[in-house]
Amino acid sequence: MKAISQRALGGPDVLETIEVPIPEPGRGEVLVRMGATSVNTVDRKLRSGRVNFLGPPPFTVGFDLSGTVVGVGPGVTAFGSGDAVFGMVHGRTGTYSEYVVARADSLGLRPHGLDDIPAAALPTAASTAWQGLAAANPRAGERVLVHAAAGGVGHLAVQFARQRGAYVIGTARAVNHEFLRDLGVDEVIDYTTTDFTTVIDSVDVVFDLVGGAYGQRSLRVLRADGRYITAQESDAADDPRYRKITARPRPAELVEIGEHAADGHLRVHIDRVFSLDDVALAHALSESGHSRGKVVLTPWE
Ligand SMILES: NC(=O)c1ccc[n+]([C@@H]2O[C@H](COP(=O)([O-])OP(=O)(O)OC[C@H]3O[C@@H](n4cnc5c(N)ncnc54)[C@H](OP(=O)(O)O)[C@@H]3O)[C@@H](O)[C@H]2O)c1
């Protein structure tokens, strides 16, 4: 089978296609034929060496998976061959691969009507958005500020916040404002022309997907009893209102989110779909920092 691998850390050009044997599922594992995967920031950080929890190369990156079960290991009763599944997979191999071995308990059944491409866009981004909002627990009428509202996590987070009845403010370039208003965002701020700290205040929740110096600046607009949630490193870590989240794979939660996407209550925006032949272009687009929604990868042509 084909898989993406890299012999060195570096830019998108280190990603290459190799041939490797199809892996065998072990106890509690399934073998999935990949239908689609998607690009997450962590994939790029692993590729370049900004994080290194996979150890030194060679390795295959990728955590999001949608596909079809083609083999089950001993002890697996939840799935059988032919089942459509999706999930956030921390398996033996990355998901930029024709076949992926995954722990059965990391996957959920893909809801009817949800295709591979939107399903592959969801696992990491939607789990981050959902779990971030759960940590903040905004109530109806509360003011929620989402930084990087037009990105993979952000465009889902603003919809989850709206569903909770919050008043949602998002930061994004002007080119994304109509997109965000269509998703229900009440107020948009162009961070390239306007310092958000000068135009809003009394915010109940900040969901910071930019991090860095956005932390302290966000605290300036946050109520004394507000909640600051981030999925990034930021300079607000010493504040008692600060909380950092790391997305966890929770298949039942993901299936529920997938059902909202399948029935049209959640919009999953795909910026572009690349085949894995063009994985370097996909990483370059993601690395621009200005992709709208998600960048998705499908198998080699
Ligand atoms: N902790 C976790 O478990 C976890 C999981 C997933 C993601 N994350 C983190 O969450 C962050 C967002 O991830 P993502 O996948 O959504 O990223 P992404 O899709 O690559 O984000 C791209 C978006 O960021 C926006 N953006 C860039 N600079 C901005 C700025 N200064 N102010 C406001 N918006 C800005 C862009 O909007 P414009 O084009 O309008 O500039 C673009 O739409 C990343 O830092 C990632 O590392 C953490």
TrEMBL record:
GO terms for molecular function: oxidoreductase activity. The keyword NADP applies. InterPro entries: ADH-like_N (IPR013154), ER (IPR020843), GroES-like_sf (IPR011032), NAD(P)-bd_dom_sf (IPR036291), Quin_OxRdtase/zeta-crystal_CS (IPR002364). It is an enzyme of class 1 (oxidoreductase). The keyword NADP applies. Its EC number is 1.-.-.-. Keywords: NADP, Oxidoreductase. Residues 10-297 form the Enoyl reductase (ER) domain. PROSITE patterns: QOR_ZETA_CRYSTAL. Transmembrane segments: none annotated. This is NADP-dependent oxidoreductase. The lineage of its organism: Bacteria, Bacillati, Actinomycetota, Actinomycetes, Mycobacteriales.
